[in-house]
Specification:
single chain, alpha/beta, five-stranded parallel beta sheet, 11% strand
């Protein structure tokens, strides 16, 4: 599928390049491809349940890089009891007194579950560090310990996948301004988003060090370029499916049998009921 995005190879000049690129873009049907991948996610779900597998998928990245849309496309056609999304709020005073990883451990998957972290323990290396919610000493200690913590998760039999979504300065600003102008998106723009916009380079330094120090053979980081959201979704979901050794499970269709007959003594309830009016024109 990626070949549809490569620059056209041509010796016929700029016009030929534009024409070939348009043809390639036209030949790539996002809705069809994402639909196909969602079918495969349903097959993955069936295998996860049958095999009792445990999977953790971490999504980190720049603000407005498309993490929410990515997770939505992954989960919209599967069961929330198998694909659990964890997006933890700010820690309570009690949680602040605990070992840092403690509240995340409680959300790790049991058999037959995929847990998707919409941001994760890597908050400590990103927003907590940049915004001063944790000390520099604690942030660096986290970066040293995280690979060991993840090694323990993987050694226990959990499949761990980590994705970092990137977005350019220009595209992030375009998306932020779109949120400002669109009432149905304004809720997405938080004070922390504004800070991340203003402190782009502080976050760049923090993320660069995080990726460098916590990339490992047992839990590597996978970078997802996300200026093109549709391309990012297709590429990332494809990679998830390729990274989990699932097999298609035969679906045993149930026999619905026959519906019972209406009882001869059944009397329809005539009491007043409040029916939602039809608002469709």
């Amino acid at each position: 599928m990626d070949e549809n995005y490569e620059p056209a190879q041509t010796d016929g000049g700029a016009d030929r390049v534009v024409k070939d690129n348009k043809k390639k873009k036209k030949s790539w049907d996002y809705d069809k491809e994402i639909g196909r991948l969602q079918v495969e996610l349903a097959h993955l779900q069936a295998w996860i349940k049958k095999a009792g597998a445990r999977v953790v998928i971490i999504f980190e990245g720049r603000d407005a890089a498309g993490k929410g849309g990515m997770i939505k496309r992954i989960t919209e056609k599967v069961s929330p009891r198998v694909f659990r999304v964890v997006a933890l709020p700010a820690p309570t005073d009690r949680e602040k007194s605990q070992i840092y990883m403690q509240r995340y451990i409680a959300h790790l998957p049991a058999a037959g579950e995929i847990v998707i972290f919409d941001r994760s323990w890597y908050n400590r290396a990103g927003v907590d560090r940049v915004m001063g919610f944790t000390s520099e000493k604690k942030a660096l200690r986290f970066l040293e310990l995280a690979p060991r913590f993840e090694a323990a998760i993987v050694e226990s039999g959990v499949i761990l996948l980590k994705y970092f979504l990137t977005v350019s300065e220009e595209e992030q600003e375009r998306r932020f301004r779109r949120r400002i102008d669109d009432p149905v998106r304004q809720w997405k723009l938080s004070p922390m988003d504004v800070e991340s916009y203003q402190r782009w380079w502080d976050y760049t330094r923090a993320y660069d060090e995080m990726l460098r120090m916590t990339d490992s053979n047992h839990a590597p980081w996978w970078i997802v370029p996300s200026d093109d959201k549709k391309r990012a979704r297709v590429n990332c979901i494809s990679h998830i499916l390729q990274s989990i050794p699932y097999e298609r499970v035969k679906f045993d269709a149930p026999d619905l049998g026959k519906r019972q007959k209406r009882p001869a003594d059944f009397v329809e309830d005539r009491s007043i009921r409040h029916v939602v009016p039809n608002a469709a024109s």
